Amino acid sequence: MKPETKLVKVDTFEGFKSLEKEWNALYEKSEQATIFSSWDWMFTWWEVFHDELSRKLFILCLYENETLIGIAPFHIYSHYPKALIQGRTLQFIASGNKKEEKVTSEFLDLIVQSGRESLMIDAVSTYLIAHKKEWDFADFEYLLKDALIFQCFTGSNEVVIKKIQDGVRFYISPKNNFDEYKSQMGNRWRKMYDKKTRVLERDGAVKTVDTKSGESHEKALSRVSDMHCERIRDRIGYCAFDSEKFSNFHHRVLKRLHPQNKALIKTLYLDDKALATYYVFTDKGQWHYYQSGFHSNYANRYSPLFLLVCNEIGEVVTQNMLFDFMYEPSADSYKKEQYAAEHETMFRLYWSSAPLRFYVFNIAKSLQEQTLSFKERLTNKLKAREKS
């Protein structure tokens, strides 16, 4: 007998909350899913940010004989001024924050039980075409090359599609031992690691403390916030942790994921002084480096964050796990030499059920890129003039 399938739209807070058990069971069966597609991550994000930008849930759940086999974790926002061009925009839950409080959620995709991918892709494509009056545009960022979302609407002329390259993901593959990893670092960085380690160990008792071994995760997160903001605020003019909602999200998601050993904060100490700290999420054989910071007073003498991260990479990749640095706008990054990281291209995907909107969007995007390019050239000229 052919299995009975049905696609159900979930568009209420209560409906989303009630999916927890089924969502988590499916997440474990999905080869594509990462921690950022887990119910804990996405529901926490919705709890905190649902009241911004006129957001509405648009979760599509595919059932086969009453068993959940696929989720398209969408929401729709329609916020001025973007709505003037894009209209009602379909995105993955946990994406689309304001720049100043951006919660980076990468590698999002359809969440599908292995072996049911084609069924889910067809169901989502058919539903979105049949209900195209409910949405005008779609924007999916930080996608990997094998994302299932790329396969939607194959052969259809009902939806306009544009796929662009958008930055890279840096990562370090598993290694046999730490020496193998270190041998792949750039010569300058390998020597620096050895030198700074000697200086640090000569100056006192060195230890790494983590939230798994008893340190309060609330206290550790506050330290991440302080150290991260110290180094980032002067560089870009703001720090995401200044946002009450951004901080609230991380306190909530850490409270959910930490007891499951899926979130961790580690801090490098010299005697009783915290020198550097970093914040990671981990699951399914991947270790996602998320936030970090260090005290500038000790930066030149010890390069403490560099040492902390190198040691962590060595520990992770020798346990047959992938160490993920996540998104960078360019492949030309210090991570290649400093941390011996590989990279792969990431993508951004746009859809539109209204061709005229897509045409206007392309014009607006081109004008925006030209304006940014002009500002960059002008800034470089002014800097050059100041130096001369």
Characterization of the model:
The chain has about 400 residues and is α+β, with helices and mostly antiparallel strands. The protein folds into two domains: about 5-170 and about 345-355, Aminopeptidase; about 175-320, Gcn5-related N-acetyltransferase (GNAT) (Aminopeptidase, 3-Layer(aba) Sandwich), CATH 3.40.630.30. About 40% of the residues lie in helices and about 25% in strands. It is built from 13 helices and 13 strands. The protein has helices at about 15-20, 20-30, 40-50, 80-85, 115-130, 180-185, 185-205, 215-235, 245-255, 300, 305-315, 335-340, 355-385, and strands spanning about 5-10, 55-65, 65-75, 90, 110, 135-145, 160-170, 205-210, 265-270, 275-285, 285-295, 320-330, 340-350. Strands 1, 2, 3, 4, 5, 6, 7, 8, 9, 10, 11, 12 and 13 form a 13-stranded mixed beta sheet that branches. Strand 9 (about 265-270) and strand 10 form a beta hairpin. Helix 3 (about 40-50) runs antiparallel to helix 9 (about 245-255) and helix 8 packs antiparallel against helix 9.
List the helices and strands and how they pair.
Layout: E1 5-10, H1 13-18, H2 20-29, H3 39-49, E2 56-64, E3 67-77, H4 82-86, E4 89-92, E5 111-112, H5 117-130, E6 137-143, E7 160-172, H6 178-183, H7 187-203, E8 206-210, H8 217-236, H9 244-257, E9 263-270, E10 273-283, E11 286-294, H10 299-302, H11 304-317, E12 322-328, H12 335-338, E13 342-352, H13 355-387
Parallel strand pairs: 4-6, 11-12
Antiparallel strand pairs: 1-2, 2-3, 3-4, 3-5, 6-13, 7-12, 7-13, 8-9, 9-10, 10-11
Helix pairs in contact: 3-9, 8-9
